[in-house]
Amino acid sequence: MYKSFGMDEETSQFLVMRTASLEEQGIVLVDFATGLPLDAPDRQFEVAKKMFAELKPGLTHFILHPSTDTPEVRAITPDWESRVANYKLFKSDAFKKLLASEDIKLIGYREVRRAMRS
After folding, report:
1. CA distances from 10 to 4, 5, 19, 90 (A)
2. Average pLDDT, the chain
3. Best exposed site among 4, 23, 29, 98 by fewest CB in 10 Å?
4. Interval 44-66: pLDDT, tens
5. Residue 83 in contact with residue 77, Cβ under 8 Å?
6. Cα(first)–Cα(last) distance of the chain, in Å?
7. Is the pTM above the cut of 0.90?
8. Rounded to 5 degrees, what angle do the CA atoms 2, 28, 66 make?
9. Rounded to whole angstroms, how far apart are CA atoms 2 and 5?
10. What is the DSSP annotation of the chain?
């Protein structure tokens, strides 16, 4: 798996062993990481729907870049429209219904920390 990230064989094997060791100790690890792209401001819902349908069971770190539309965000990032669309999507009832229909539970890292402590 790690080799797909460009790691050499030795590093990849070390990480596989280290990951297994952490899991044996009961340490909760993120299984997957993905996020909404910042190049499709007009298709946020459709993209999210497709991505959620393809999620595998486990703990996924899903990255959003939510921002409100302000002069500052427009000045500092060329992808501001996608960031504003991320925010609007995340706050929408349609998004909440999508999460429920896919049986996706939103949690934060506090919940992950609690799971690691129990």
Report:
1. 13, 13, 14, 40
2. 90
3. 4
4. 999 999 999 999 998 999 999 99
5. yes
6. 28
7. no
8. 80
9. 5
10. -GGGGT--HHHHHHHHHHHHHHHHTT-----EEEE--SS-GGGHHHHHHHHHHHPPSS-EEEE-------HHHHHH-TTHHHHHHHHHHHHSHHHHHHHHHTT-----HHHHHHHHH-
